[in-house]
Amino acid sequence: MSDIALRRLDGGFDRWDGLLDLILVSFAYMNGRIDPPSSALALTPQALKAKADTEIAYAAFDGAQIAGCIFCRPEAETLYIGKLAVLPAAQGKGIGKRLLGAAEAMARELGLDSLRLETRIELVDNHATFAAWGFRKTAENRHAGFHRTTSIEMRKAIV
Fold first, then answer.
1. Alpha-carbon span 101 to 60, nearest angstrom
2. What average pLDDT does the segment 59-85 reach?
3. The pLDDT of residue 159
4. Residue 38 backbone zone (phi > 0: left; psi -120 to 50: alpha; other: beta)
5. pTM of the model
């Protein structure tokens, strides 16, 4: 595997179409498995650019190819992790861990004590992966209009 380089997404980044493709390909396995459908399906390149303008975002590059991304939003005591995505062909190479490492470093820099994420209730493999990475289930949630649990919240303490 070639070296993976992380880059913080800023005004100089111009590959929003490619980033959207990465997210949609990475989240495609969820289609038909989760209800409600992923909010990723409503993203546009312009929406991703706006999201990166208001949040802290990183992309992982394998050479010139965008292989992963993460979006982080500071909250009162935690850094919320969203749209963590890794190309299916690049999974298992440590890219997700590297992106979460960047998020942990940012949380420390901001004086926050944990990372927080939400994952859909149906995606039990994700629950196991995040648990192996140090996250613990802290809540069950439901989307508006649903009377059943649709997602779980997980947190990882920053030490």
1. 12
2. 95
3. 78
4. beta
5. 0.94
Residue 16 sits at the vertex; the CA angle it makes with 12 and 22, to the nearest 5 degrees, is 130
Give just the sign of the alpha carbon dihedral 130, 131, 134, 138.
positive
Burial (CB count within 10 angstroms: exposed 0-12, middle 13-18, buried 19+), residue 99:
buried
CB 121 within 8 A of CB 151: yes
Dihedral over Cα of 48, 52, 53, 55: its sign: positive
Cβ atoms within 10 Å, residue 9: 22
Neighbours of 64 (CB within 10 A): 7
First to last CA, the chain: 30
Q: What is the pLDDT of residues 138-158, one digit of tens each?
A: 999 999 999 999 999 999 999
Say if residue 74 is preceded by a cis peptide, omega within 30 of 0. Answer: no
CA 99, CA 112: separation in Å to the nearest integer?
17
User: Residue 74, class by beta-carbon neighbours within 10 Å (0-12 exposed, 13-18 middle, 19+ buried)?
Assistant: middle
Please check whether residue 69 is in contact with residue 60, taking contact to mean a CB–CB distance below 8 angstroms. Answer: yes
